Amino acid sequence: MVKRTSFQRDDCPIARSLDALGDWWSMLIIREALFGVSRFGEFQKKLGLAKNILAVRLRALVDQGILKTAPASDGSAYQEYLLTPKGRGVFPILVALRQWSEEFDARPEEIATILVDKAKGRPVRKLELHSQDGRLLGAADVALKPRPSGKQGRRAMA
After folding, report:
1. What is the CA radius of gyration of the chain?
2. Of these four, 22, 57, 99, 138, which has the most CB atoms within 10 Å of its CB?
3. Rounded to 5 degrees, what angle do the CA atoms 119, 94, 86 make?
4. Is the CB of residue 151 less than 8 Å from the CB of residue 137?
């Protein structure tokens, strides 16, 4: 496996996030974990991912503190992979990616599911970015400024 560049020490929070989350397989593993998948075999069956690649991705997610291992809840000899608070924090990112795809996909009619509120059964509203006073914000409405510590970033949306 080719070693990729690490952004762990980059001053850009987006780069650091991508470093922690890894690649698309990692995001799909987190997606499955959010919907209750917890065992190696379940991940493998749901994703169709080769066992060696799945093992590497799960280990990386554990190392990043996104998943943790625990004895199987049914008392068997297996272990489970459970989301940590850091892992559950990926949920809005996945929702944003899903909503972006639903809006801009060339064939949205082929998307098999819709995201709904369990309690009401109604579709979830699109995520929005709001100012502290409640105004809806777009990319032209935000800017980056140095942290009080004085460290300045190198990238515009970093």
Report:
1. 19
2. 57
3. 95
4. no
